[in-house]
Specification:
With 158 residues, the protein is mainly alpha-helical. The chain is built from 6 helices and 2 strands. The protein is 65% helix and 9% strand.
């Protein structure tokens, strides 16, 4: 593709793109910094622990990868690190004895219960409170629209 074939971003499109990237980066930086300082985990770790807390029977790694939208190998790496820290455990899946289900340990549950109130207060202060109900509804609509579109977009397709 030559430069003549590219439909360059218009000023408002570029502003939207840069704003979205900056916002995403800032949220990840704030979340990771706060959670590392208070709990010794990352925002992605918190997300994984949260999902594990919602299903008493545990999750298969491929199920977690789907709900978290990450590769199974990245989830496996994170699970192994959290397992070494005593926050999660793997158990035999009763429905398929060859498979394993990941569970939150009691230490993982205590960490999540101790961390959640402060984390939620930060999320509220950083993102929710500055928005009115209409802003929040639009944010939900736009995030869902872009997430559904990106779920259908293969990185190799450009």
């Amino acid at each position: 593709m030559s430069n003549d074939d590219i439909e360059w971003l218009k000023p408002d499109e570029l502003t939207a793109w840069v704003g979205l990237i900056k916002l995403s980066s800032r949220i990840v930086t704030l979340t990771d910094g706060a959670l590392r300082q208070t709990a010794g985990i990352t925002g992605r770790d918190y997300e994984l622990l949260h999902h594990l807390s919602t299903v008493p029977s545990g999750w298969r790694i491929n199920e977690l990868a789907g709900v978290i939208d990450d590769s199974s190998s990245c989830i496996t790496h994170r699970i192994n690190r959290l397992r070494e820290a005593g926050l999660v455990d793997k158990r035999v899946d009763p429905a398929d004895l060859r498979a394993r289900r990941v569970h939150l340990t009691s230490a993982g549950r205590r960490l999540l219960e101790r961390t959640a109130p402060t984390h939620v207060a930060r999320v509220r202060r950083w993102v929710i409170d500055p928005l009115n109900r209409n802003d929040l509804a639009q944010l939900i609509r736009l995030a869902n629209k872009l997430n559904m579109h990106l779920a259908k977009t293969e990185p190799a397709n450009g």
